[in-house]
């Protein structure tokens, strides 16, 4: 059996479950006005590629809205957050964003959380810079994220950024430059959004994302993936008010690429815990 045929066979239950999950997707969303005081509306920018956007299968628990967790929809309107939070592709599903938002709301019952979904499936870090165009989805990821965040800032305060990306950059050449590129991206977001100390949390790539098959048809650990994860660790030496979350214990949805829904929620909890830690930490000195 060829590798393509084997992959197709493995994906059959995933596709069947996906079709069943379509019935759970919210048909109508409820628009909600944010609180009148900007300091009570804490905004979080969600950026990266498909594992931030979410590809987990939607379950009933993912469609229950939380009154104090909103999302900025595609049209720039605030509504009660439900999965899928993102809208980058029709395959958008459960990602870490909603669980993250729920956890952050639980930490302070006096505030409302606003999620700004801007992740784009398949986008490499090179298109996360001003003017860069991503033909797969016909968007400019960085410019769009900046515009949506500035719109949200008219009513709220930026409290943090979470980032999960790197699958597209898991090649020997691209992974070697990842550390510097992500450091530049963090600095650019902070400068362009006039938020020099905004907390930034990145997520590790999972071990189940193996390298492509060798001629023998077997898949092996991807050294480029390890290099990217090592870069996330090293960035703590270079960037203030930054940390990363582990992908340990996560599982794929059957495609050896995307987190299943349970793992996406687990990452959401980890992002919230890391964000809380950064927000309580002393602010770095500005140079």
Automatic annotation (TrEMBL):
Molecular function GO terms recorded: hydrolase activity, acting on ester bonds
Keywords: Hydrolase, Signal
Secretion signal span: 1-21
Entry superkingdom: Bacteria
Domain Sialate O-acetylesterase: 41-276
InterPro entries: Carb_Esterase_6 (IPR052940), SASA (IPR005181), SGNH_hydro_sf (IPR036514)
Protein name per the record: Sialate O-acetylesterase
Protein source organism: Hymenobacter fodinae
């Amino acid at each position: 059996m060829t590798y393509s045929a084997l992959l197709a066979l493995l994906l059959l239950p995933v596709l069947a479950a996906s079709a069943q999950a379509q019935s759970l997707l919210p048909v109508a969303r409820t628009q909600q006005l944010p609180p009148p005081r900007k300091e009570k509306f804490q905004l979080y920018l969600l950026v990266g590629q498909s594992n931030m956007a979410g590809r987990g299968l939607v379950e009933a628990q993912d469609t229950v809205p939380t009154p104090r967790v909103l999302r900025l929809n595609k049209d720039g309107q605030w509504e009660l957050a439900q999965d899928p939070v993102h809208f980058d592709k029709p395959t958008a599903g459960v990602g870490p964003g909603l669980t993250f938002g729920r956890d952050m709301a639980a930490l302070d019952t006096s505030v409302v959380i606003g999620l700004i979904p801007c992740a784009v499936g398949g986008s490499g870090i090179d298109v996360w810079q001003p003017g860069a165009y991503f033909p797969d989805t016909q968007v400019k990821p960085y410019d769009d994220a900046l515009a949506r965040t500035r719109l949200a800032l008219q009513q709220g305060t930026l409290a943090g950024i979470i980032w999960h990306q790197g699958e597209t950059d898991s090649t020997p050449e691209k992974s070697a430059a990842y550390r510097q590129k992500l450091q530049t991206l963090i600095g650019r977001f902070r400068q362009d959004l006039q938020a020099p100390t905004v907390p930034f949390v990145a997520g590790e790539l999972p071990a189940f994302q193996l390298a492509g098959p060798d001629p023998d048809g077997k898949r092996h650990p991807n050294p480029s993936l390890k290099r990217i994860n090592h870069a996330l660790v090293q960035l703590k030496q270079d960037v203030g008010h930054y940390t990363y979350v582990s992908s340990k214990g996560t599982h794929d949805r059957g495609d050896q690429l995307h987190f299943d829904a349970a793992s996406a929620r687990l990452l959401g909890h980890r992002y919230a815990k890391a964000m809380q830690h950064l927000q309580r930490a002393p602010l770095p000195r500005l140079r």
